[in-house]
Write a structure and sequence with these properties.
CATH topology of the largest domain: Rossmann fold
Largest sheet: 9 strands, mixed
Number of helices: 9
CATH architecture of the largest domain: 3-Layer(aba) Sandwich
Strand content: 25-35%
Number of domains: 2
Strand order of the largest sheet: 7-6-5-8-4-1-2-3-9
Shape: elongated
Structural class: alpha/beta
CATH superfamily of the largest domain: HUPs
Oligomer: single chain
Number of strands: 14
Bound molecules: flavin-adenine dinucleotide
């Protein structure tokens, strides 16, 4: 039996897909609005247990109630999406079940009475396989919103949230671009020297019909890009047809988020940069010359 924990974002089709491969019933425990419960129900788990309208309580205020609901379902495996509130609830469920919680999960395979879990460790430098023989809580990429199918029944189990409430909501700085779905990505690293040079990159992305992305130092360090735009182990994972990497050295923490790209093209002044060996095509040259020339040619 597998339980999926869901909070305010119904993007859990990957969790449901994993749950189905594990055999046995799939129960979703939803600590979020009714619309979230309905969207999850459309993905056809066997049951949806909905903890009631949260009102002004944050999803994390339902940690204890969600842990109770998960424990009542008696799962061998608990799955949660790798998002802040979902991780809080996953931790609470792990504590209630006295089960280990594993993050960075990339694959789960049933093996007799146990599951073999593959996850990234050491900041994406390595993967490890872990065999879980008892209940285990796994945090992984949730996937997309489930496609509507034959909906599961939604069972109401109204819960009393902990005594905290949301007093203010401020949107995070975001460019509103979903990198995960982009078919072409123009990504830039520390080879870009100044904020005003971002325009060069945007012009190329425009000409290519691509989304822009970056390495972590450009988002977390100098702030040339919003924080939701960097690719890598602690950022986004992208799977475009084309990943054009400008002035990016290709450290593993970055590449782990770009390796699902069909074709990687690198532009780098250093022929010895790791990305040059990893890319399908590499231009050894100065991005300040290559990018305007490429943009011009594309136009
Ligand atoms: C726990 C942990 C997690 C991390 N997570 C992430 C993550 O999720 N994403 C991420 O990106 N990083 C992450 N990092 C950081 C990562 O290790 C690298 O430091 C980072 O990716 C390097 O970014 P960069 O390639 O832009 O910079 P650099 O490594 O400095 O490379 C710049 C490249 O630009 C080239 N260059 C310079 N000038 C030009 C020019 N004019 N034209 C063309 N090329 C030029 C240089 O030859 C060089 O190869 C993480 C690190 C740790 C420790």
């Amino acid at each position: 039996m597998t339980t999926c924990i869901v909070t305010t974002d119904p993007a859990v089709d990957r969790l449901l897909a994993i749950a189905r491969t594990l055999g046995g019933p799939v129960v979703a425990v939803v600590a979020g609005a009714r619309a979230v419960a309905d969207a999850v129900a459309a993905g056809a788990p066997d049951r949806v247990v909905w903890l009631g309208e949260p009102g002004d309580a944050p999803a994390s205020a339902f940690a204890s109630a969600a842990a109770d609901a998960v424990a009542a379902a008696g799962p061998a495996v608990v799955l949660a999406a790798d998002r802040p509130a979902d991780r809080v609830l996953a931790g609470a469920a792990a504590a209630r079940l006295d089960a280990p919680a594993l993050g960075g999960v990339t694959a789960v395979v049933p093996e007799g009475g146990s599951v073999l879990v593959t996850r990234t460790v050491l900041g994406g430098v390595a993967t490890e396989d872990v065999r879980a023989t008892g209940p285990v809580v796994l945090v992984t990429d949730g996937g997309d919103v489930p496609a509507p199918g034959a909906p599961a029944p939604v069972e109401e189990a109204p819960a009393v949230p902990a005594a905290v409430r949301v007093v203010e909501t401020r949107p995070a700085a975001t460019a509103g671009v979903d990198l995960r779905g982009a078919r072409r990505v123009v990504s830039v690293g520390r080879g870009l020297k100044a904020r005003e040079d971002v325009a060069l990159v945007e012009a190329l992305a425009d000409a290519l019909g691509a989304a822009t992305a970056c390495t972590r130092p450009l988002a977390e360090g100098v702030g040339f890009f919003p924080k939701d735009r960097y690719v890598g182990v602690s950022g986004r994972t992208v799977t475009p047809d084309l990943y054009l990497a400008l002035g990016i050295s290709g450290q593993v923490q970055h590449m782990v988020g770009a390796r699902g790209s069909r074709t990687v093209v690198a532009v780098n002044t250093d022929a010895e940069a790791p990305i040059v060996a990893e890319a399908d095509y590499a231009v050894v040259g100065d991005l300040y010359q290559v990018v305007p020339a490429l943009t011009e040619a594309l136009r």
